Amino acid sequence: MSNLIVQGKSLYINNEPIQLISGAIHYFRIVPEYWEDRLLKLKACGFNCVETYVPWNLHEPKEGEFNFEGIANIEEFIRIADRVGLHVIVRPSPYICAEWEFGGLPAWLLADSNMRFRSYHEPYLEKVDKYYDVLLKKLVPYLTTNGGPIIAMQIENEYGSYGNDKKYLTHIKDAMLIRDIDVLLFTSDGPTDSMLQGGSVENVLATVNFGSRPTEAFNKLQEYFPNTPNIVMEYWNGWFDHWGEEHHQRDPAETAATFSEMLERGDSVNFYMFHGGTNFGFYNGANYGDEYQPTVTSYDYDCPVSEAGDITPKFHAVRKEIAKHKDIGELILPESIPKMNYGPVTMTESVQLFDALEMISKPIQKANPETMEKLGQDYGFTLYRTFLEGPKEEAALTIQEVRDRALVFVDNEYKGVIDRWKNNTISFAVPKEGVQIDLLVENMGRINYGPLMNDPKGITEGVRFERQFLFDWTMYPLPMDNLQLLSFKENNEKTTGPAFYKGTFNVEEIGDTFVELPGWTKGFVVVNGFNLGRYWEVGPQETLYLPGPLVRKGENEIIIFELHGTAAPKVSLIDTHKLG
Questions:
Q1: Of the listed 51, 99, 101, 234, which one is catalytic?
Q2: How far apart are the C-alpha atoms of 185 and 156, rounded to whole Å?
Q3: Residues in the chain, pLDDT under 50
Q4: How far is the C-alpha of 30 from the C-alpha of 300, rounded, in Å?
Q5: 184, 244, 542, 567: which sits with the fewest CB atoms below 10 Å from its CB?
Q6: Cα–Cα distance measured from residue 337 to residue 512, given in angstroms and rounded to the nearest whole number
Q7: DSSP states of 474-543 as a string?
Q8: In terms of CATH, what superfamily is 368-471?
Q9: 3-state SS string for 395-433
Q10: Residue 580: what pLDDT?
């Protein structure tokens, strides 16, 4: 393969003009066994390129410890894309947004209260450079200049929506160049004055991101960069969901019409997303508009290919437009993956969280309640415990401030929720003998976009009873990544409050299925040791996607952590995804 070259308003590969028709597929949101299936569907739709982000927090989960195995094996994803016959665009910016936890930045950065990210702050840049030493070395063999499929790479991501530090952007550019990244480099920003001013770098190709009005967007791009190719690096053909919202859907005809307008003119387009996938585990991000808005587990995004890999009406509408302009042959799709209805599963065993603490957590004692990051914890829950002397008249308990949602217990009795929304205090009196206070705090996803990204989790300042701050805390970090240490007992009706439930189901034929949780309130689901993600009765998502490769023939184990208890500890494994 040869380099992608810019000449005036055109792109060339092998001295031949090329119109990039690309689609975003995130390897880290798809089980590796399905990478080929999704890439073949991209190719079958008439696309010639795949684009992916690279999440730093997945690849360096602990500082200095790197992970490129399984779902993090980006090299294998690139090799499959090459084999399928697709060009590859990689966006390895330290920050990716992507509705991904902390925009891809590793949570351990926040253990340093003085850390400043996405700017020329040397302690931050030292950590980026160490990450790039490992990551970029893996990508170099796959550049087109070395015979691979990677035609372009991104410097930073929508940086103009965040800042204007050109010295920082230049450092990221140079960090890539000195590590032998010699393919086309680009930036991508919204089509506004401040975004293009803040996010672009000298001698780096500028592209824009939008969901509609392409003429207007490209006119703004040309204002700043006359005679540059019109490239939309993120054409938002769908959208994502926050908990408690309606499920987003966009008319396929509208998507196709906007796309057709760009195809006609010869603009290059990258669909964001072509196939969205899933925020497995605790990797969903959050936004902050008027309030904190955590993103759901599904990243279906109303795409041409659904979360579970199904071809949608949008796929056909988009392919029809491409076929008007390119010879893409007849539609040949990979064999469809069966959807299985395995039926109901009863949770036969359980253990209450308070009984499980010593099994899965080592307590840490401090005068002040500390954030998760300062406790060396990235994701999950933390239980904060203290003793309050009595007697005291009824007064309000206040967490200053909670990130993101706390269950309050007084002498093991559940009193209610204090959260980042409108539930600010809980009042109670303290008897003469005093009370034990337990605060179970959930990290619901760090903010991934905007000015409030500095989002440490747990209790960030302190806890007060009336005006008096409470000290002498015992903290139990609960990252929930060691549930194999749990000892369960036979389920009984006394199981209330936060608890783990366990059940088994047998499978003869393997396929995709969906976990339906009627009567459950809030928690997460683990199948055969793999965390599928969170559920919450507020919707819109009503089922969790369980890909077939996570299921095995014979007996399978399902563990559910439920915060608020359930009257009927049963789930159903059904063949239909319910997204609201």
A1: 234
A2: 10
A3: 1
A4: 11
A5: 567
A6: 7
A7: EEEEE-S--GGG---EE--TT--SSEEEEEEEEESS--BEEEE-TT--EEEEEETTEEEEEEETT-S--E
A8: Galactose-binding domain-like (2.60.120.260)
A9: EEEEEEEEECEEEEEECCEEEEEEECCCCCEEEEEECCC
A10: 84
Q: Which two tokens stand for residue 143?
A: 């550049």
Taking the C-alpha atoms of residue 547 and residue 519, their distance in angstroms, rounded to an integer, is 23
User: According to the model, what pLDDT value does residue 270 have?
Assistant: 98
Contact in structure between 252 and 5 (CB atoms under 8 Å): no
What's domain 21-325's superfamily in CATH? Glycosidases (3.20.20.80)
Specify whether the CB–CB gap between 436 and 424 falls below 8 A.
Answer: no
**Residue 258 confidence (pLDDT):** 97
H or E element, residue 318 = helix 313-325
Alpha carbon distances (Å) from 325 to 15, 19, 67, 251, 420: 20, 11, 42, 22, 50
Pair 309, 275: CB distance under 8 Å: yes
Location of structure tokens 């795949």: 50
Query: What is the residue-wise DSSP string for 40-82?
Result: HHHHHTT--EEEEE--HHHH-SBTTB---SGGG-HHHHHHHHH
In CATH terms, the fold of domain 343-351+483-574 is Jelly Rolls (2.60.120)
| Same CATH fold assignment for domains 21-325 and 343-351+483-574 | no
Cα(570)–Cα(568) distance, integer angstroms? 6
158, 321, 370, 442: the active-site residue:
158
Do 240 and 303 contact (CB within 8 A), yes or no? Answer: no
Encoding tokens for residue 118?
Answer: 């996405």
Angle (nearest 5°) at CA 449 between 398 and 71: 105
Q: Are 371 and 108 in contact (CB under 8 A)?
A: no
Question: Would residue 158 show up in a list of annotated catalytic residues for this protein?
Answer: yes
Whether 509 is catalytic: no
